[in-house]
Amino acid sequence: MLKGKKFILGISGGIAAYKCAALTRLLVKEGAEVQVIMTKLAKEFITPLTMATLSKRPILVDFFNPENGDWNSHVDSGLWADAMIVAPATANTMGKMANGVADNLLITTYLSARCPVFVAPTMDLDMYQHPSTRRNMDTLRSYGNHLIEPNAGELASGLIGKGRMAEPEEIVAALKHFFNQDNRPQLKGRKILVSAGPTHEKIDPVRFIGNYSSGKMGYAIAEELARRGAEVTLVSGPTTLSADHPNIKRIDVTSAKEMLNACEKEFEQVDGAIMSAAVADYTPVSPANEKMKRTSNELSIHLEATVDIAAALGTKKMAGQVLVGFALETHDAVQNANKKLIKKNLDFIVLNSLADEGAGFNSDTNKITIIDKDNKLKEFALKSKKEVACDIIDELAIYFK
Q1: Of 211, 261, 336, 345, which one is the catalytic site residue?
Q2: 12, 169, 296, 395: which could form a disulfide with 93 (CB 3.0–4.6 Å)?
Q3: What is the DSSP letter of 167?
Q4: Dihedral, 198, 201, 203, 206 alpha carbons, nearest 10
Q5: Nearest C-alpha neighbor of 24 from the set 81, 108, 90, 85
Q6: Which tens digit of pLDDT belongs to each residue from 366-391?
């Protein structure tokens, strides 16, 4: 699977640099080519001679060779590679990557790379939890980088917590998973309905009831379906996102009622539907036609329940159609998701919990559990929403075999 692939391994100055010897050996054993780029501090943790012996290539550290003036082109390296792996990625290196501080060959190569980039963080637990580190990791994810989560355990400081760089075998597995995407189940000829984003329930011409949904999960699902050949109808609530794939037909709606009408109309013509939108549960009974003025210190708005769209489609589901729902929970997550699965006549449900850091609304990542009718649970690690979309579509494809 990795045979013939070309990897840049960027090693920064952390104690976990010793793991890069095993990582390089595993990649070479898979038939891959590995070009190692080290920061100057990384040389204090593992020698260039070790890495050169294992990779069978000269190690790059400086922009040029001071002995003969040969230039180590970060542009050429960035174009050469099929993927770049930054491991270990220290807090310092991730800060530079997130903010474009191009003061060494590793960072300039990263900024020049046109290939996918995988980042394996490593640091002590308090550094890992620091707001600046979390922000930098979120920024790197937003750039499209793939973060390979560190493990929890005993750290170099002697403390116990999260911050151990993923094991070489885990990093290789992540690379195999990524490069195996072209071999994933295809859905050419299938017609799939996807709902995404929030709904806005009008209070008056300038105010509404809504939620924090960005639509990122639904759009990632629509794009992955389209990439695999499906014809996608995307019913989208208000969002700033765009879907430019030619296989995606987008229908814009605002309210829960409009989304219900659009989904019911389209559902008759599709093979399956994934209801990932965050639809408002309640809507004002009598929205005002003009802006409401402040007349007192209190205001009561009479609300009525909206129609549960997934449940409505569940009553109309025909043989052969597949219906997928979402559950965002704060407590008793699995139990509540199971109830929704049965009540709405779903084939499987995607559960995410606000208790999981990095999951939920307006984030570039998600952590899900897929539950099917047989109560089988598939739990997944925290991933980018694009990667989560792949996992969901893999599950969907099982029903079309």
Answers
A1: 211
A2: 12
A3: P
A4: 50
A5: 85
A6: 889 999 999 999 998 888 888 899 99
What fold is seen in the domain 186-289+299-398?
Rossmann fold (3.40.50)
Q: How far apart are the first and last CA of the chain?
A: 24
CB 10 within 8 A of CB 83: no
CB atoms within 10 A of CB 260: 21
What tokens does 263 get?
């989904």
Q: Do domains 6-182 and 186-289+299-398 have the same CATH topology?
A: yes
Closest CA to 285 of 307, 258, 303, 259: 303
Distance CA 349, CA 369 (A): 8
Q: Which CATH superfamily is domain 6-182 in?
A: Flavin prenyltransferase-like (3.40.50.1950)
* Alpha-carbon distances, residue 244 vs 142, 234, 250, 266, 332 (angstroms): 19, 11, 9, 20, 38
Q: What tokens does 17 get?
A: 């640099």
CA neighbor of 182 nearest in space, from 364, 27, 382, 5: 5
Query: How many helices (DSSP H) and strands (DSSP E) are in the chain?
Result: 13, 21
Tokens coding 295? 């007349």
Q: Where are the domains of the chain?
A: 6-182, 186-289+299-398
The token pair that represents 191 in the structure block: 């017609």
Region class of 356: left (phi > 0), else alpha (psi between -120 and 50), else beta: beta
Angle at CA of residue 207, ends 205 and 213, nearest 5° = 125
Question: Which pLDDT tens digit goes with each residue over 124-158?
Answer: 888 999 999 999 998 998 888 999 989 888 888 78
Q: Is 104 a catalytic residue?
A: no
User: What Cα–Cα distance (Å) separates residue 5 from each residue in 23, 35, 80, 115?
Assistant: 15, 11, 10, 12
Q: Please report which helix (H) or strand (E) contains residue 192, including its range.
A: strand 191-196
pTM above 0.85, yes or no: no
d(CA 96, CA 15): 19
SS3 content of the chain, % helix, strand, coil (to 5): 35, 25, 40
